[in-house]
Structures are given as structure tokens and as C-alpha cells.
Amino acid sequence: MKSRRAFLQHSVFGAMAAGSVEFWTRISAMPETFRKGNFPAVIATWNNEDATKAAWEILSAQGRALDAVEAGARVPEANPEDSSVGYGGFPDRDGDVTLDACIMDEFGNAGSVTCLQHIKHPVSVARLVMEKTPHVILTAEGALEFALSQGFKKENLLTETARRAWEEWKVKSEYKPVINFERHDTIGIVAIDAQGRASGACTTSGLAFKMKGRVGDSPVIGAGLFVDAEVGAAAATGLGEMVLKTLGSYFIVEEMRRGKHPQKAAELAIRRLAEKYPEQARENQVGFVALDVKGRHGGFGLQPGFNYTLFQQGKNVIYESGSYFSK
Ligand code: SD4
Question: How far is the CA of 132 from the centre of ligand 1 (A)?
Fold first, then answer.
């Protein structure tokens, strides 16, 4: 697991807690860029600074947001040390690595794969589902067949570390689908490019040691990701069951449509699931990131410890988010 880097760290929550004035002042201190739209910009869940950097390379060269989010999502997918995404992701309780991913573009097109095995880059398969089929979701065997037909290579995604973790888990085989409060790496990434086009992607191996066939929020449009070119985009990480039942990313985009700042919209989405599912909320982590078409951003977690990365105006910055619960 990557160690946290000492990039500039801001505490949005700290600023808000210390009196919202500082927070709002910081935002209103950039009126020029905001009025025009402070983009390109890309935001990702967790300290995924290598992912936002990959996305920024495309955005800063006038590339399309869709290409940027795909490139960003592919970074943790290829990282064997990342235990929640792609290659190296922890398997299900039968020892199979099954991957979920989705992508959405500025036209509202969407593609998704669920329970995909043996393919290192599910986000790129999701993109082809969007671009080359009349469908939104392909699952399991069908998704694999499609991927192979598009030239993807079948690979073993279970690393030695992940296999050992599964062997250890099997000793007790305790089925407790709880997402802890620590950093985990599922990446939700959304971007606005220099032309103001919004896109997003989300990719994960889901809950470690999950039931065979379990699908979380990450590949579900509206839950793990939602993009509306008129408004902005949002993405989620954490216990997918809570995000699914509240369609968190869609909720955030709709709040932004009604005029809410992305920060406020993310906080409202967390509050909604905390109030609706208080018991699950106490024991689990959920985090959201949001970006609107003016280039304003926000992020918020259920529990302390959620952070996110924003690349904007040439700077890659990790933000410690605020949280609904303080402990
Ligand atoms: C899921 N949301 O499958 C994902 C898990 C996650 O970091 O975010 N892990 O529920």
C-alpha cells in the first residue's frame, strides 16, 4: 500500500470547522477562474496522486476528459500492491478476483462491467461496452467473452500477497462485509477538460472475500459514478451497499443541479445515508468526491480518514476530507 505523500495538504473540514468563513473565502478568492470555469481539473478518491497525474497529462495537452479518467483509472488497476483494484485486488471468498468498473462521458453515454475475471483493465472494457455495444452493463462470463473478442489478454490477477491474505481469511472464514475506516483504494475519478467536457470512471475489486457474484456500487451508474455535462460529476468509495441504496453519486449531481456547491452536495449525500442506515453507517466508511462544471470541487466521508486528490491549475493536492462522524 502506498504511503501518504507529503504533498500540500489542506483540511477542508478543518477550515469549515474553524468557521466556514475561511473555507468560503478560499473559494471566493478565485473568482476570475471560477467565473470562466476553473478547468481542466481532475479529482479522485483517496491519495491517488499517480492516477490524477496520468489524467492531468492528457488534460493539460488539451485532451478529452474521457481519455483522462480512463488513463487515471488504469493506474491503480495495474498496481499489484493495490489490494482493492484490478491486478492485486483481493479475491472473493472462493479465491477468484472479480472486478467491477464503469465509465461515463460528456454525452451521458455509459458502459460498465461487473464480476469480470482475468482482465487487468476493466475500465477499458467498460469503455468499449459503451462505445461498441448498444448496452450499458455486461457481466461475468459475457463481459469476459466480450473483452477477449476486443483483444484483451486473459491474465492471472491473483498476486501472491492477495492469495496469502485469502488463505489467512479462510482460517476463520468469518463473513463480515464491513469496510474499515482505513484508506482503501477503489478509485472514483472525475474530470473536466479544457473544453469543459465532463467524464468519470470508477473501478474496484469490491469487498475483500465477498460472496461469489456480489456487485457493489462502483459499476452502477448513479451509485458509484454519475456525470451530467450540464452540471458536473461525482464518484464514490466505501461500502457499496449503502451507496447503492441511496444512489449517492446521482444524488450529488442532482443537488449540484439545484445550485449546491459540490462540497455541500457531498455532505448532503453522506448525511442522507447516515440518517437512513444509522447502524450500517456507524460501522462503515463511505466517501464521495464531486466536481462541478465551474471547476469547483468537494469531498466528504462518513468516517474520519477519507481523503481525495485534486489536480487543478498544475498542482496535485491531497485533501483530508471532513466527515459526518468525528470518531
Ligand atoms: C464496493 N465501493 O464494491 C466498493 C468498495 C470500495 O475501496 O470502495 N473499496 O462496495
Answer: 27
Residues β-bridged to residue 287: 237, 301
* CB of residue 114 inside a 6 A radius of ligand 1: no
Residue extents of the structural domains in the chain: 37-323
In the residue annotation, 98 being an active-site residue is answered as no
Q: What is the DSSP letter of 108?
A: S
What's the whole-model pTM score? 0.88
**Does 19 score more than 60 pLDDT?**
no
Please compute, for residue 227, the number of CA atoms within 13 A of its CA located in the half-sphere on the CB side: 26
Q: Residue 46: CB partners within 8 Å, gap ≥ 6?
A: 183, 184, 185, 186, 187, 237, 287, 306, 307, 308, 309
- Choose, from 45, 98, 186, 203, the residue flagged as catalytic: 186
Which residues partner with 311 through β-bridges? Answer: 42, 316
CATH 1.10.10.10 fits 37-323, yes or no: no
Query: What is residue 44's DSSP assignment?
Result: E
What is the CA(185)–ligand 1 centre distance, in A? 8
